[in-house]
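Appendix B. Chain record.
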Amino acid sequence: MWIILGLTLTVLALTAWYFYNKQQQAQTEAHFDQILGLRQLIQLLRQHRRLSHSHLMKSQLTESRGEILPVFPEQNAILSLSHTLLSQAGLEQKPMYRILTQHLQQLSTEWPQYSMSRNQASHGKNIRHVMYLIDDHLTTSLLIADKSTLFEQYQQFWPVTLNALDTLAQFRSTVAVFHPGNSKQEVLLRRHLHLLQRRLGQMNLMLKIPGPSLMADQLENDLTTLLQSASASKACRLALYKFSLSLSDNIFYLFDAKLTEIAHSLAIDDFPLDISASLLPLLEQAESEAAGQTELKLQA
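Structure tokens predicted for this chain:
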């Protein structure tokens, strides 16, 4: 009798433990679905910032008026993905997602009137908003999984990532007002670059499998070459802005590596490292929508 009762209780306990773990894993997977979508949204915002920045620069150079504004596929993809993420968000997070969606809608309609510096800042603000949502989902996932060591490692990695993004923003702010031959501005650019190199090195060392060398000396040499080769202010600023894009790519390469590392530790094995490749289906759909919108504008 006691043996049967003990076996019954053991079976019930194992069954409860199984279903509890299964529920936890389902919750973790749902959080990582949102994390992937949010990371894709950051990539779309970065791509849209580059395209809109290029368009604004050309508009300033040509002083064109009355032109038909382009509808970038990334713009439609941003709005579509943000609404999808809002619909999937939990009740406690929906207010932050609603605010983000409103800001993205505003960005999509107002960016043609922005200056280049405001365009840069507006995209950066939205990217930062998305980063905080990713942090919220990651923190919740690690707490659910009770991964205290992994949680501590992530808590060390997260502020360094934010500091790297802040330093990059400061670098770009200096670039926006840079004039060749201004020694104080050159010193400031180098200071920002040195600090950013340190942040990137810290991020790289906090990965289980460090990425390829970031070639700090090469970055310094590249910056020196840029400063010495361009005499015209606009040409120099454009070259420095393009240089900043490679710095941004480095930051998000390391951030993606940490996300993938955490995902695998939580048995989320299909989290992609190549975020750009994962965007192809969404961009293909958005591209067809953008083509239709452009055709309607032409007909009007």
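Further analysis of this model is presented in Appendix C.
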